[in-house]
Amino acid sequence: MDATEWMKKAIELAKLGANYVHPNPRVGAVIVKDGQIVAEGYHKYFGGPHAEIDAIENAKGINLEGATLVVTLEPCVHYGKTPPCVDAIIEKKFAKVIVGTQDPNPLVNGKGIEKLKSAGIEVEVGVLERECKWVNRFFFKNILENMPYVILKVAQSLNGAIATRNYFSQWITSEESRKLGHRLRREVNAIIVGKTTALKDNPSLLLHELEGKTPWRVILDTNLTLPLELKVFIDETRQSTIVAIDENLPHSRKEENLRIGGVKILRTPSQNGLIELQPFLEKIKNEFQVSAVLVEGGAGVLSSFLRDQIWDEMQLFVAPKIIPGGKNAFEDYTIDSLEYVSEVKIISISPVDKDLHIIAVNPKSEFLSFLQ
């Protein structure tokens, strides 16, 4: 194995952090001695040991002097929830550290690399850098733009329909596509749907059989008109439900009943009956530490995110079916000229059973420029 193979292993470890580590980055590390991986670790949960420390602890009984540490993100040099990782690396007398990508956090941002070099440790930076940045794209967005990362998820027919005109949508895509789309929930720490989707589908928005921390379930309901009997208001995890309403809506008994039941009410600006997305996202980041959101619909909400260009990634599942007259994912946003068309950059296209899975990013998201 070489540095590239070791970093691939570290990246796979980093992914295990899933949504447990938000708002921290997902980081994986392996320790190599005499050309062999002798220990590995990853950041398992927010506030817990960082990947480097986890790997070192898993190497108990092994003399690490002269070993190589391979880590997806630059080791930290500051005190946060845990002590600086660089100090432990220096103490263990590693000979070399291979870093996937530099940490954009101003508290680190090259300082960890320089401290290691100053201690006489050889440092190599940029091994599988693109892949390491991708696994931490949520963290990069949070640090560089102080906003949550936004993923739009769409399951549609070949002609772009997400449901029939009378809202029947179960099921357009295959079971395998639905499983893959469902797994996206454990990558984020908030799921967003609009009032119509909440009313028509009455979804639970849970991870179900997947392991992971339950994401916030966010419902956009400007005038608080949804019935109290919905699953997200009465199930055992209702404390993870947030309802975004107009900041000037008069206080009501319904609002009070929801609060008493444990549901969070977020008052935020609205315009023309719709929640304003920019201040809304700022609020859920600041008040609920939301770092990545998955927008699951419906058409009105998806159209709003596209119209305002407040999205970073699109996960599109396309079934080989035609639904005449169906509802389109972005039908509430219309343009009169191709001058205003929304462009996307396709990252990958892969088959899932009979469907196609397309991953695309917003070319206007500057922090994703490493994908260009």
3D structure, described in words:
By secondary structure, the chain is an alpha/beta fold. The protein folds into two domains: 3-139, Cytidine Deaminase, domain 2 (3-Layer(aba) Sandwich), CATH 3.40.140.10; 144-371, Dihydrofolate Reductase, subunit A (3-Layer(aba) Sandwich). It has twelve helices and 18 strands. Strands 11-10-9-8-14-6-15-18-17 form a nine-stranded mixed beta sheet, sandwiched between helices. Strands 2-1-3-4-5 form a five-stranded mixed beta sheet, with helices on both faces. A two-stranded antiparallel sheet has the order 7-16. It is globular. It starts with a helix and ends in an 11-residue tail after the last strand.
Task: Describe the protein's topology.
Elements: H1 3-15, E1 28-33, E2 36-42, H2 51-57, E3 68-73, H3 85-91, E4 96-101, H4 111-118, E5 122-125, H5 129-135, H6 137-145, E6 149-157, E7 161-163, H7 175-183, E8 190-194, H8 195-201, E9 216-220, H9 231-234, E10 241-246, H10 253-261, E11 264-268, E12 270-271, E13 274-275, H11 277-288, E14 292-297, H12 299-307, E15 313-319, E16 327-328, E17 345-352, E18 355-361
Parallel strand pairs: 3-4, 4-5, 6-14, 6-15, 8-9, 8-14, 9-10, 10-11
Antiparallel strand pairs: 1-2, 1-3, 7-16, 12-13, 15-18, 17-18
